[in-house]
Amino acid sequence: MTVLDANYNVIGSLTAATGMTVSGSVLLLKPGTYQVQFTSVGDGTTLPADALYSAYSTALIDPIGPIAGDPTTQPKFITPGNPGTYTYPTGTVTTQAYLWALLNL
């Protein structure tokens, strides 16, 4: 079995002997057009027998990996029950959504 992209580049393949079942590593495909070719090879003297095959795939509907976004653009430490004020881990309560402080280490 050979998987080809829209430009006919091989992006994955599997080979199985007669009567064998095989599986391969994950092949993560970007949205696009692909072809899957199945080839049955004989011994060079006779035509190959008809081949039965099954191919299974799964589609991911949830994104994986890091989420694009800047978490520093969202205020944190909002004071519960008092919208508009922020309570920082140092105990500082202020109306400033972002608190910049120097740390003495």
Characterization of this structure:
With 105 residues, this protein is mainly β. The chain has no helices and five strands. It is rod-shaped, with a radius of gyration of 28 Å. The mean pLDDT is 75.
What Rg do the Cα atoms give? 28 Å
Strand content: 5-15%
Number of strands: 5
Choose one word for the global shape.
Answer: rod-shaped
SS summary, helix count: 0
Note the run of SSEs as H and E.
EEEEE
Query: How are strands sequenced across the largest beta sheet?
Result: 2-1-3
Structural class: mainly beta
Q: What is the domain tally? A: 2
**Mean pLDDT rating:** 75
Tell me the major beta sheet.
3 strands, antiparallel
Key words describing this protein structure:
single chain, mainly beta, three-stranded antiparallel β-sheet, two-stranded antiparallel sheet, rod-shaped
Quick structural gist:
The chain has 105 residues and is an all-beta fold. The protein has strands spanning 2-4, 10-13, 35-37, 86-87, 93-94. The chain has a three-stranded antiparallel beta sheet with strand order 2-1-3, with no helix packed on it. A two-stranded antiparallel sheet has the order 4-5.
